[in-house]
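FIELD: query
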Amino acid sequence: MSDHLFGDQFQSGTISEHETQEPPRFRVLLHNDDYTTMEFVVEVLMRVFQKNETEATTIMLAVHNEGVGVCGVYTAEVAETKVDTVHRLAKAAGFPLRCSMEGE
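FIELD: result
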């Protein structure tokens, strides 16, 4: 069998810089509203974003005081899943909590 079966495709044995680029990352944001309780926001941050109580409370206060808070930075697929999960939990609990994602 020929060593040239795949041509020059595997000749160098190295991976180019283009092939090793990190996937785009996205910030997941929670947005303030006048109806969602602070307790529910903390619960969502702990459950969906695996924050401890102190971290969750800090982010919740940023949402409350600044109108928006960063929950974390993730790949697109993970960020989309977390946004969808927050919306599903909020709807089930009867809250209008909004979550979004933006490129880093």
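FIELD: remark
Residues 76-93 form the longest helix (18 residues).
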